[in-house]
Amino acid sequence: MAVAAFGTVVEWYDFSVFFYVSSSLATTFFGGDEGSLLLTLALGAAGFVFRPVGAMVFGHLGDRIGRRASLIVSASLMAAALAGIAVMPGSDTVGVWGGVGVLVLRCLAGFAVGAEYTGIMVYLAETARDGRRGLAASWAAANSEIGSLLAVGGGYLMSRLLTPADLDAWGWRVLFLAGAALAALMVPLRRLMDETTTFEEVRDNPADPGRSPLLTVLRSHPRAVVVAFLVSAAGSAAYFLNITNVPTYLETTADMPGTTSLWLGTVAAVVAIIVTPLFGLASDVVGRRPVFVVLAVVILVTTLPAYLLLAGGSGSAALVGGAFLAVPAAGWSAVAASAVPEQFTAVGRFSGMAVGYNIATVLFGGLSPFVATWLITVTGSVYAPAWYAVAVIIVTGVPALVLFRDRAHRPLAEINRDDLLGAPPVRSQ
Question: Is 291 within 8 Å of 141 (Cβ atoms)?
Fold first, then answer.
């Protein structure tokens, strides 16, 4: 379980570091001209477009050949993509082709991580003890925040050690090489993982061996896929707007120095890591829905005041605002890590969850920093990201809470046999 959870460190390091060093990437590949940052953020979001494609491919593999095998392949592709970006020549050497190369490698990384977070959540949920799935699966969410912490902490360290010119010239490349090394390390480690009992039972006793697991889950359990999409959409928007994008927001909107904004981002990531397992454990004790409801209310009530603190330009006020944003966003991810896999039966769990989660991440995760920056430009309001985050929670979070089925206190074996469309549960003997 520890080896599996480590994978989210690399996945979120990869996608977070791109946004944390987006200013340097804009200078390297697009000359740093006006509009180059917006173009770089769009480039970063492009990688998310390929997540659903990877989700369909790796979800099928995960349900057919095993959770472990699909995670080994995805780690190898992630290492290649990160290493490629690290050595990609800039616009002063190859012109526009450097940016094109980064785009291709971001798409490869997006394809690869289509299996990562969902595959790891499925693996942790299926290997955890009953009554502790929330705590166990929250490892995936906590480790994703560790990945973000390594990214923002690494960016802060490089900005302190290097001049802005050196950071733009080569400092950011060190951060990508470090990510490539972490991804490569996962390949031999994942060979040590055991396959889950749930997958082995489905493999040995296939319900419909001739049908694709994805088609099976889309036909039989559409509600579960919709819930996976809605829960993940709310969580992705909260996470990427209220944690990942905060340093860039402080630097570009509040005119805060890059070193200060990255330091505040590091503190927010530490806070998120600390609270994540606590929310996972709370959902085991009182249920998933009550914790979701509390978190949704907190996000709706505190997001705008928190952005008022961020935009004020004061370091101490921004620190408080960042904490108000980070805690509920981290909590939502922690509960979703176990709640979403529990919506599916054994057959097609990997495929259905991967598609629902990754489509949501494309629309409301990777695109959120781009949309937030665009909204600020169009409206002239520095609070546009706050209103956008609130709107997403209302549009996706509220329906998710209505359709969601709370299975925190049910054994996984029972869930695996359930018909999510309404058949009565089969009780263990």
Answer: no
The CA-atom distances, in angstroms, between 52 and each of 93, 114, 228, 239, 421 are: 33, 6, 13, 19, 25
Give the chain's radius of gyration (CA, Å): 21
Are 116 and 46 a contacting pair, CB within 8 Å?
Answer: no
| C-alpha to C-alpha distance for 276 and 233, rounded to whole angstroms | 18
Residue 11 vs residues 75, 115, 131, 164, 242: alpha-carbon distances, Å: 9, 10, 27, 27, 18
User: Considering only CA atoms, which of 182, 20, 177, 171 is closest in space to residue 87?
Assistant: 177
Amino acid (1-letter code) at residue 10: V
Neighbouring C-alpha atoms within 13 Å toward the C-beta of 429: 0
Q: Which residue type does 343 have?
A: Q
H or E element: which one contains 272? helix 258-286
In DSSP notation, 322-352 reads HHHHHHHHHHHHHHHHHHTGGGS-STTHHHH
Residues 6+ apart with CB under 8 A from 52: 114, 355, 358, 359, 362
Q: How far, in Å, CA of 406 to CA of 290, rounded?
A: 9
Question: Contact, 139 vs 5, CB < 8 A?
Answer: yes
Over residues 175-190, mean pLDDT:
89
Report d(CA 302, CA 390) in Å as an integer: 10
Query: In the predicted model, is pLDDT for residue 313 greater than 50?
Result: yes
> For 63-114, what is each residue's pLDDT tens digit?
777 777 888 888 889 899 999 999 999 888 888 898 899 899 988 988 887 7
Query: Which domains are seen in the chain, by residue range?
Result: 2-192+212-417 (1.20.1250.20)
Distance between first and last Cα of the chain: 28
Q: pTM (2 decimals)? A: 0.77
Query: Mean pLDDT lowest for which of 56-65, 240-249, 255-264, 412-421?
Result: 412-421
C-alpha closest to that of 415 among 353, 348, 344: 344
Nearest Cα to Cα of residue 274 among 336, 326, 335: 326
Is 202 within 8 Å of 345 (Cβ atoms)? no
Contact 148, 244 (CB under 8 A): yes
- Non-local (6+) Cβ contacts of 183 within 8 A are 10, 14, 75, 76, 78, 79, 82
Name the percent of the chain lying above pLDDT 90. Answer: 21
